[in-house]
Structure formats: structure tokens, C-alpha cells
Amino acid sequence: MREGNDHRVTGRPLHYNRWVVVFCFGVLVFLGLFYYATQKIQYVWRWNRTPIYFAYQEEIHVTSTIDGEVSAITVEGDKARITVTGNGEEETYTTPKQDVRVSKGEFISPGDTLATYKKWKAGLLVIGLWITLKISVLATIIGVIIGILSGLMRISENPALRWSAVVYVELIRGSPLMVQILIWYFVLGTLINDLLIANGWGQIPALWYGVASLACFAGAYVSEIVRAGIQSIHRGQTEAARSLGMTYGQSMRHIILPQALRRILPPLAGQFISLVKDSSLLGIIAIRELTKAAREAVSASLQPFEIYILLGLLYLVLTFSLSMYVQYLERRMATS
Amino acid sequence: MIQAKNVYKTFYAPHAIHALVDVSADIAAGEVVVVIGPSGSGKSTFLRCLNRLEHATSGHIYIDGIDILDARTDINKVRAEVGMVFQSFNLFPHKSVLENVTLAQKVVRKRSGGASTEKAMALLKKVGISDKIDVFPDQLSGGQQQRVAIARALAMDPKVMLFDEPTSALDPEMIGEVLDVMKTLAREGMTMVCVTHEMGFAREVADRVIFMDAGAIVEAGTPEHFFTNPTHDRTKLFLSQIL
Ligand SMILES: Nc1ncnc2c1ncn2[C@@H]1O[C@H](COP(=O)(O)OP(=O)(O)OP(=O)(O)O)[C@@H](O)[C@H]1O
Ligand SMILES: [Mg+2]
Predict the structure, then answer these.
(1) How far does the CA of residue A249 sit from the closest CA of chain B (Å)?
(2) Which of A71, A130, B209, B225 is paired with A330 by a 20 to 30 Å CA distance?
(3) Residues of A in contact with B102 (CB under 8 A)
(4) pLDDT in tens, chain B (243 residues)
(5) A124-335: CATH homologous superfamily?
(6) Residues B35, B193: contact at Cβ < 8 Å?
(7) How many angstroms separate the Cα of B187 from the Cα of each of A124, B37, B180?
(8) Which residue of B has its CA nearest to A333?
(9) Ligand 1: which residue has its CA nearest to atom 25?
């Protein structure tokens, strides 16, 4: 027992553990200093107020629409039915029976509260999270499709296809995503929506321009990943497939793409983690994704520290679960 | 079965490389032809032109009467009739041995799963791999991989088999098992064109030996003619180097 029990159990030298302690200590010191600084500026932490930005109970008032007398209140299970009659009219309101505010025979005017009940509603951050998720999933799917198609075009022998892919990739990679979002919404969006209106069709909501900008942006990077992935598969694979009589499409589908996919999964995952993070830019075209929602929550609550820290953690949860999922996929592919 | 008429193949990479120069050959059904020649003489290119993996620059190539250089020919149909075995096996690494042999049957020949599995099992038995059908290619030895590759090509019921140095990447102790499979095929009457340095094989099963040099066919004849009294100096030189 030269280096003590720890070494035998973990297979690591003692000083390893010492540095683990140092690391944890460092983290605590950092957090402590941060907290101390906020106290110095007299920031009041109110973590207890943040849950309402995830979910809250809203009080809903059931109000009468007519003048008259409450002629009947019947209770069925956990629902109450309130009937108001007057001036030859009759109206029945169904509500949860939690808090009926009127009694039989009472006279009421329009707008009077008959009953109230509480209902759970999603808070701003949950709404934003949902939009961010929706945009990310849609943009990922469309981005993969665009990426595979343009990646295949990029390696095609047809110059029209190849050059289109090159121009697309270079255009997208050569300008900031923020600028592309602005162009998608304020240039292409205005153009398309005005044309649609001129033809008597409805407008396309901003969300879809956001999805389009992210999908096109990611698509260009995916295109390069796909191209490199396909080119990394040995030429002999295509030749073997084609020599058996498979068409170009069949050999791509059964032989090349499945092999390429395994290799490109890690860089692809990185691309889509970026996409989730990049979706935070879409607030500038009035899409209420997570970041925009958080900013609204901040202006309502005046609790920027709590909410922005939560915002960062929420993105971390999203990207972390995504990368765990991809690791799971990789492991499953490796065994199959 | 195979007719090549005045075939030229020039690569531009970027200088012109004349890989095939006026190559003509007539290979009858059931004939076994061995192609030999020094490195870079165009043997692989000739073979690859026969199933249009390389598109000949000029000339005519007919497989079973079909002009494969005609733009209207459905080359995939022709390729299904022409099996090819590569020096580096080129098995599909993401498919099991069985799937390697069934895939093209299903995709190209549109056979049912049952029929293609049955066919694959019979062929794998024939090449001596029936106990390893569910493993992946990287778990097989080179010789086993090459035998699976032969089974994969045979599964399409080809009329012709092309072999491009099928034993060159193999350890010496595995060459025999692959050559044995090829000899069996030859005896069963398969039309075969083999590029190989295995002179024993050429002597034993070839109906004809073709010697190529610098993209041209220098000399062709029976194995006896070749190994006893070759006419050309270049053939003599080549044979003296490898025998
Ligand atoms: N795709 C290609 N691009 C450019 N040149 C090529 C290509 N394929 C073959 N060549 C050239 O064509 C010539 C003939 O090559 P080929 O592979 O047919 O020779 P080989 O007789 O099979 O030689 P080896 O015994 O080394 O396999 C060589 O000079 C080679 O460099
Ligand atoms: Mg060769």
C-alpha cells in the first residue's frame, strides 16, 4: 500500500483528488465573489419570483352577457351550470364549480362576474422555449435536406448543379447570420408577402422566415460536411456498387450515404447545436423565441440577473440534451 | 461474348496518358482469358472499360452483342450481367456478409428477401463461408473477404466475370483458397477475364493468355505457346522477370 487506499480504489494518485478539491473550491470562490459583487450594488435576488415565468395560475372570470336573474344553478360532477334569464332571453354558462360568486334569484347586469376559476398557463420562458424548439426542429430537418441535396450537387459532374451549390455555400458562409435574417424577413419576406397579398392569399408568418434563414444558413455548412463525408468514402465502394448494376441513386442510398452518415454525425451535431444557439438572433424579426421571451420577462419583472442566468441555463439544457442524444445515436450505430 | 474493337482510352491528368492504344479482343462464351503485363500497361483500364467503369475514348465494345458505348444503352442492365472482383475486395463494410450478397439481388434484380437469401446461402456455401454469414467484413481474413466478393458478384447470375488482380492484396497462404474458387468457376464454364500475376493459374485454367504493354496487346495465345516459346522480345523479357 504505497499510495494509500485511494490509489487502489480509483487507480489515480492522491494528488489528483487534491486538484479536484482545488477545482471545486475555485468554482465556489467564483460564485461567492459574484454574489458579493451583486450585494455591493444592492441587487435584490428574488428567485422565488421566477417560477411564474415558467407557469402560473391565471384567474378567469366568467361574466354574464345579458341582464336578468339567476334562474338556476346546477352542479354536475365538478362543473357548475349557471342559467341567467331575463327580458325573454336565457343564457347558460358552464364553469368549474370552484368559486361560484352568485346565488339563485340574484339580479345581474352584463359584465357581472358569475364565477371565477384558476387555470394553469405557460409562462413566458416556456412559451419561448417551445418556439425555440419548434424553430430548431423545423430548421434542422429542412437544413439537413438542403445540405444533402446541395452536398450531392457540389460533387456532381454537371457544372450547372455544381456551380449553384458553390455559389450557395459561398454566399451563405460569407455573410453574418444576422444580416441573412434581416434579408430573409425585410427583403424576401416583404416581397413574398406583398405578392401573396396582391394575389389575395394570406401572409406567411415571421416564424417561417426565421426557420428559412436558419435552415439555409445551416444547410450551407451541412452541405460541406456532407460533401466531405461522401468524399471520405473510398471510391471502390461506388465502383463495387455500380459494377453490380446499381444506379447512381441506389448506390448513394444503400452504400455511400449510410457510411458517410456515420462519419458526419459528430460534425453535423455540432452544426445543429449552433443552430439552436443561433435561433436566439430571431428576436430581431419579432419572433418570440426564448431570448426574446426572456427580454420581455426582464422588462416586466425587472429581475435581469435571475432571468438571464436562467436563460443561459435553458440553452445549456437544450444543447446538452442534443449532444447526449447524438452520442447515443453514435453508440447505437457503432454496434449495429 | 465480349468484343472489343480498336479501343482507345486516354486519361487527361492533366497530361494525356494513353492507357489503351488500339486494343481489340474477341472473347467467346465459356472462355477463360488471363491478362498479364507490367505495371501501368493498361490491364486494369482494359478490364474497367469492359463494364464502363471507365468510358473508352474511342472504339467499340460489345457485351453479349450490346454496344455498351452507345449512349442509349442502359449500362446498369449490362453491368448486372458482368461481375467484377477487385484487388481490394471493396465489400460493403456496413453490411453483414449475407447482406453484402443479397443487397444487389434485391435492389437490382428485384428478387424477394427469401429468394435472395437462398441464393446467397448457396453461393456462400460454394465459396466456403457459410459459417460466417452474420459477421461484418472487417472480421474476415483477406481471403475470406475476397471469396465473399466473388459470391456477391455471382449472385447477380452474371454471364461474364472480370477479375482485377484478385489475389494481389492477399497473404500468400490465402491465395490458394481464392484461386480454387476461380478454378471451380472456370471448370463450370463461366466466361472469365482475369488480370493476375498467378502464372500457375494461367497455365492450369486459361484458354488464352493476353500480354499487354504500354496500353497495347503485344501478344496473345494459348498458355503452352506463351510459356514455352513466346514470339516477342518484350514478352520474353517480362516472363523472364516474373517466372
Ligand atoms: N483514373 C486515372 N487517371 C489518370 N491516369 C490513369 C487513371 N487510371 C489509370 N491511369 C494511368 O493509365 C495507365 C494504365 O493504368 P492501369 O491501372 O490500367 O495499369 P495496370 O496494367 O492495371 O497496372 P497495375 O499492374 O499497376 O495495376 C497508367 O499509366 C496509369 O497511371
Ligand atoms: Mg491494375
Answers:
(1) 11
(2) A130
(3) none
(4) 999 999 999 999 889 999 999 999 999 999 999 999 999 999 999 999 999 999 999 999 999 999 999 999 999 999 999 999 999 999 999 999 999 999 999 999 999 999 999 999 999 999 999 899 999 999 999 999 999 999 999 999 999 999 999 999 999 999 999 999 999 999 999 999 999 999 999 999 999 999 999 999 999 999 998 888 888 888 888 888 877
(5) MetI-like (1.10.3720.10)
(6) yes
(7) 79, 25, 11
(8) B94
(9) B39
Task: Look at domain A57-122 and name its CATH class.
Answer: mainly beta
Asked if A17 contacts A4 with a C-beta cutoff of 8 angstroms, the reply is: no
Of B81, B86, B108, the CB nearest to A240: B86
Give tens-digit pLDDT for A208-250.
999 999 999 999 999 999 999 999 999 999 999 999 999 999 9
The alpha-carbon gap from B165 to the nearest alpha carbon of chain A, in Å, equals 14
Span from the CA of B45 to the centroid of ligand 1 (angstroms): 6
Residue A202 has pLDDT above 70, yes or no: yes
Indicate the length of chain B as a whole number.
243
Please measure the distance between the N-terminal and C-terminal CA atoms of chain B and give it in whole angstroms: 31
**Identity (one letter) of the amino acid at B227?**
F
Q: Which ligand is nearest to the CA of B197?
A: 1
Of B83, B90, B156, the CB nearest to A239: B90
Look up residue A49 and give its three cell numbers: 419570483
Strands B160-164 and B191-195: parallel
Name A134's Cβ contacts closer than 8 Å, sequence gap at least 6: A207
* Burial (CB count within 10 angstroms: exposed 0-12, middle 13-18, buried 19+), residue B51: buried
Closest Cα to atom 8 of ligand 1: B45
Closest CA to B196 of B140, B146, B232, B156: B146
Closest atom of ligand 1 to B47 CA is 18
